[in-house]
TrEMBL record:
This is Regulator of G-protein signaling rgs-7. Residues 85-203 form the RGS domain. It comes from Toxocara canis (Canine roundworm). SMART domains: RGS. SUPFAM superfamilies: Regulator of G-protein signaling, RGS. It comes from the Eukaryota. InterPro entries: RGS, RGS_sf, RGS_subdomain_2.
Length: 223
């Protein structure tokens, strides 16, 4: 009986250790990169139910088109551009996803989510019922006081956005608020992202080479 208890206890300890390793930030970053690199398409990645990142990635199901692996994984030059331009980072599918993953670790992913929502809203047609409904949804989710994902806006911007909503919900109604949040991310979280292990590893990685894939696999094992 004592042997059985000892074995059970050991198995439990191993399981706890495995769970802790799986949850480590380094392990999550490495797995995220591996998932993107090996996925045949962006849509396949989103739909992979076995992935621990399904929920994290699903927010962009309707925001980003399906893409090939070569389009997803950045070139060395593209990664360098991210370092020079925040706009380049946001406008790259892989870069935006990686940045959002970083923000999620800082519990501030609502900022980039709001930015993405604004980008999509600009494409909607003025005067349509769907446009008006979407405007109210975005406002109530990100801008209204005590909203579920309230972003950090000054009172003047919040008031101006509310007035724009009440005057007809035009596609550019969130431009001011979006600009404020983009400035906030650029001055704060973007700078920390550029110093993060996740970004530096990617910057120093031999992009799209067998050796770099081996490095990522080794990182997963060692995490």
């Amino acid at each position: 009986m004592m042997a059985k208890v000892t074995i059970a206890h050991s198995a439990s300890a191993i399981n706890v250790t495995h769970m802790a390793a799986t949850r480590s930030p380094q392990n999550r970053w490495a797995k995220a990169i591996m998932l993107l690199r090996t996925a045949r398409s962006f849509e396949q990645l989103i739909n992979d139910e076995s992935s621990r990142f399904t929920k994290t990635l699903s927010y962009i199901r309707n925001k980003m088109d399906a893409a090939s692996t070569s389009t997803l994984y950045p070139t060395k030059e593209e990664v360098r551009q991210w370092e020079q331009s925040f706009e380049s980072l946001l406008n790259h599918k892989y870069g935006c996803l990686l940045f959002r993953t970083f923000l999620k670790g800082e519990f501030s992913d609502e900022n980039v989510d709001f930015w993405l929502e604004c980008e999509e809203f600009k494409k909607m047609k003025e005067g349509k019922k769907a446009t008006i409904q979407r405007a109210h949804t975005i406002y109530n989710e990100y801008i209204a006081e005590q909203s579920p994902k309230e972003v950090n806006l000054d009172s003047d911007t919040r008031t101006a956005t509310k007035a724009a909503l009440e005057s007809g919900a035009k596609p550019n109604m969130f431009t001011l608020a979006q600009g404020r949040i983009e400035q906030l991310m650029a001055k704060d979280s973007y700078r920390r992202f550029l110093k993060s292990k996740m970004f530096l590893d990617l910057l120093n990685d031999g992009t799209n080479t067998t050796s770099s894939e081996g490095t990522l696999q080794a990182e997963i094992v060692s995490s």
